[in-house]
């Protein structure tokens, strides 16, 4: 894992000192809210419906056991004993008091964490494949590049007042787990003639105008990454619309000017910038890469795993559902579901955080990941330790075997917390998960991504959910629209709206009708929901949704 | 014909705690909607909103629709602000 240099530590300390002084000036009345707001946002501090919210960056979703322990301590000391892991691989604390925030930031700095650029019109926390460095299908670990981008973008003087926020995602695997096609820049590591480079995707995004990103460069040599990325952001920084925030993201710029025109401008700018990068970035990347060297994988007998797998059906179900293939022999990637049925997606109590931190320290080479699907990953667990890991997870309510299933729902905080939301998301997720737990058929249903957003900004990724749900305010009533057929992977696609929305009472039965339809028409149990939808289209689902008396009554 | 004026309260978030506050009849801020002063016409609403802008401990001041009796929130967003989140017994509902 990356470890702060003296420069990094001094930078974060100084930034925290500045913010402490800004908070003091605000409280003393020397700064107005208009003056203070951009300063607090630059440091991840929002004011939401019921309280402030501090958004802490977990760079590319990677953290250590001690870092997770510190998050638990922060939750207990200054918040309400829990944290919310987000689709941006961050963690949010929902109840801090303004006076306490500088202390929280100092506590974060003690474990090399911060909240810088988790908000504001800046380059945000760079996200990456949550299986990075562990996945069997991986070409190369994307995290050194993500860290390089983080250092380059942090406090970058040209990019502190961008037209709007800017999000970069990196994957080193052909199987895209980082949703690269729905980011402002998506970087997919590829190999050409034995050299690593990137397919550069630009202009993807969700929000009110969802777009699948377009290929800007089919192969960018690794050594050109920073000048090229800088060229992209600087072209957009000049062209991007500041007159209308709904048209300010780079996806609109690409849409309005066309990908070819943008490409030409970027290449011109790149030619200029490339000569200014003297190669120090490549040297620095090589240094960063050393911090991401693979852990010292051990060779151990997997017999304890084999025996438990054979004998214990509950353990077997968890292994089959929550673990994935690891590149090292005898190892597995274990996902810890933060989606226990009926609980808030992405939430972990401080006790659960400590349990996960301990597991990482004892059995996971001291590494944890936050996935954009709002779960926690132990990326490196030797299989012989899985039975113990599972037993400990069970003791802490963390052993739900539902990764990738109907109850593994992404949900934004929605109107339970967020000032921008138009409807609640969390209760809908809780009710869907509880309903399918009662039905007991989620393993039969199989791979299914439900993603819920409480407003058009789409933090809950509903556009790329197999079943997407968007909560809106329709004439003073919470109303939920359904989209079908979205895909967040390398075959990214935007979901299609089924038709009129449903009330809060009707949305869960509506989802159930969609899934019942799928179960009735799938050709075989291994035909996934998405495959089935892509084969048959909208018609049967629409019929199931809108021809029942229930909806006729509601409409 | 002009549309009938919907009664309103002046509301904001507290600077230090961040929680929801309401402007009372004597220009103080209360944690409770039932202590809020209800404005009943446009001029009064504009005046109280303008007067409250100078309050250093209130952030994001705005007018929210309410019913005359109670008062009760008209919109569900204001109902959630008054109560707290639905997933945990936190926020105002925990204090009451």
Verbal overview:
The complex is a heterodimer of chains A (555) and B (96). Chain A is α+β, with helices and mostly antiparallel strands. Chain A contains 19 helices and 21 strands. Chain A folds into 4 domains: 6-110, Sulfite Reductase Hemoprotein, domain 2 (Alpha-Beta Complex); 142-290, Sulfite Reductase Hemoprotein, domain 1 (2-Layer Sandwich), CATH 3.30.413; 303-395, Sulfite Reductase Hemoprotein, domain 2 (Alpha-Beta Complex); 410-554, 2-Layer Sandwich (Sulfite Reductase Hemoprotein, domain 1). Chain A has helices at residues 6-27, 33-42, 65-78, 101-110, 143-153, 225-239, 250-257, 259-274, 280-291, 303-311, 313-322, 350-363, 386-395, 426-439, 442-445, 504-521, 529-536, 539-546, 549-554, and strands at residues 45-47, 52-56, 62-63, 82-85, 91-93, 127-128, 168-171, 185-192, 195-202, 214-221, 323-325, 331-336, 347-349, 368-370, 376-382, 410-411, 450-453, 467-474, 477-484, 496-497, 502-503. In chain A, the strands form 4 sheets. In chain A, strands 16, 17, 18, 19, 20 and 21 form a 6-stranded mixed beta sheet that branches. In chain A, strands 1-2-5-4-13 form a 5-stranded antiparallel beta sheet. Chain A has a 5-stranded antiparallel beta sheet with strand order 3-14-15-12-11. In chain A, helix 1 runs antiparallel to helix 2 (33-42), helix 3 packs antiparallel against helix 12 and helix 14 (426-439) crosses helix 16 (504-521). The relative contact order of chain A is 0.09. Chain B is α+β, with helices and mostly antiparallel strands and 96 residues long. Chain B has one domain (8-95). In chain B, 24% of the residues lie in helices and 22% in strands. Chain B is built from 3 helices and 4 strands; from the N terminus they run βββαβαα. Chain B has a 4-stranded antiparallel beta sheet with strand order 3-2-1-4, with helices on both faces. Classes of the chains: A alpha+beta (555), B alpha+beta (96). Chain A binds chain B through residues 26-27, 29, 33, 47-52, 80, 94-99, 344, 347, 415-417, 424, 426-427, 430, 473, 476-478, and chain B through 13, 15-20, 56, 59-60, 74-77, 80-81, 84-88, 90-92.
């Amino acid at each position: 894992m990356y470890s702060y240099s003296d420069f990094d530590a001094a930078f974060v300390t100084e930034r925290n000192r500045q913010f402490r002084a800004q908070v003091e000036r605000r409280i003393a009345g020397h700064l107005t809210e208009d003056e203070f707001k951009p300063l607090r946002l630059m440091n991840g501090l929002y004011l939401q419906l019921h309280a402030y919210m501090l958004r802490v960056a977990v760079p590319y979703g990677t953290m250590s056991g001690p870092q997770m322990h510190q998050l638990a301590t922060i939750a207990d000391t200054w918040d309400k004993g829990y944290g919310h892991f987000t689709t941006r691989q961050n963690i949010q604390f929902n109840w801090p008091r303004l006076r306490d925030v500088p202390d929280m930031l100092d506590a974060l700095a003690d474990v090399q964490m911060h909240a810088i650029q988790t908000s504001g019109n800046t380059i945000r926390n760079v996200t990456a494949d949550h299986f990075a460095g562990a996945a069997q299908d991986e070409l190369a670990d994307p995290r050194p590049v993500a860290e390089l981008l983080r250092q380059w973008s942090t406090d970058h003087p040209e990019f502190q007042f961008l037209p709007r926020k800017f999000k970069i995602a990196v994957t080193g695997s052909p199987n895209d787990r980082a949703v690269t096609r729905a980011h402002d820049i998506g970087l997919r590591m590829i190999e050409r003639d034995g050299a690593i480079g990137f397919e550069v995707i630009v202009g993807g995004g969700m929000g009110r105008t969802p777009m699948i990103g377009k290929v800007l460069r089919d192969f960018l040599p690794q050594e050109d990454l920073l000048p090229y990325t800088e060229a992209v952001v600087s072209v957009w920084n000049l062209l991007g619309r500041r007159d209308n925030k709904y048209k300010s993201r780079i996806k609109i710029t690409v849409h309005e000017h066309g990908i070819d025109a943008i490409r030409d401008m970027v290449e011109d700018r790149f030619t200029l910038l490339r000569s200014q990068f003297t190669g120090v970035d490549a040297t620095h990347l090589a240094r960063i890469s050393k911090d991401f060297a693979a852990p010292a994988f051990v060779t151990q007998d997997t017999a304890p795993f084999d025996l438990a797998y054979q004998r214990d059906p509950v353990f077997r179900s968890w292994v089959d559902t929550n673990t994935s293939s690891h590149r090292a022999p005898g190892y597995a990637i274990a996902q810890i579901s933060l989606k226990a049925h009926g609980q808030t997606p992405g939430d972990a109590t401080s006790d659960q955080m400590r349990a996960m931190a301990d597991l990482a320290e004892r059995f996971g080479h001291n590494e944890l990941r936050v996935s954009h699907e709002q779960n926690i990953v132990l990326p490196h667990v030797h299989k012989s330790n899985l039975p113990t890991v599972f037993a400990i997870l069970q003791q802490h309510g963390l052993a739900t075997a539902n990764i990738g299933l109907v109850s593994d729902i992404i949900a934004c905080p929605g109107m339970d917390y967020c000032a921008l939301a138009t409807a609640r998301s969390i209760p809908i997720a809780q009710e869907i998960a509880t309903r399918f737990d009662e039905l007991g058929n989620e393993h039969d249903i199989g791979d299914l991504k439900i993603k819920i957003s409480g407003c058009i900004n789409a933090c809950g990724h509903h556009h790329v959910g197999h079943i997407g749900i968007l909560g809106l305010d329709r004439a003073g009533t919470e109303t939920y629209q359904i989209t079908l057929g979205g895909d967040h992977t390398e075959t990214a696609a935007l979901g299609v709206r089924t038709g009129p929305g449903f009330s809060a009472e009707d949305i869960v039965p509506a989802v159930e009708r969609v899934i019942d339809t799928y179960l009735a028409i799938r050709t075989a149990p291994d035909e996934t929901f998405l495959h089935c939808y892509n084969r048959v289209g909208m018609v049967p689902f629409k019929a199931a949704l809108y021809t029942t008396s229930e909806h006729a009554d509601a409409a | 014909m002009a549309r009938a004026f919907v009664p309103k309260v002046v509301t904001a978030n507290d600077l230090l705690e961040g929680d929801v506050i309401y402007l009372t009849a004597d220009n103080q801020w209360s944690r409770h909607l039932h202590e809020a002063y209800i404005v009943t016409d446009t001029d009064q609403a504009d005046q109280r909103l303008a007067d409250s802008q100078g309050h250093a401990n209130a952030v994001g001041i705005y007018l929210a629709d309410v019913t005359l009796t109670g008062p009760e929130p008209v919109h569900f967003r204001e109902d959630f602000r008054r109560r707290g989140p639905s997933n945990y017994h936190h926020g105002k509902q925990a204090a009451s």
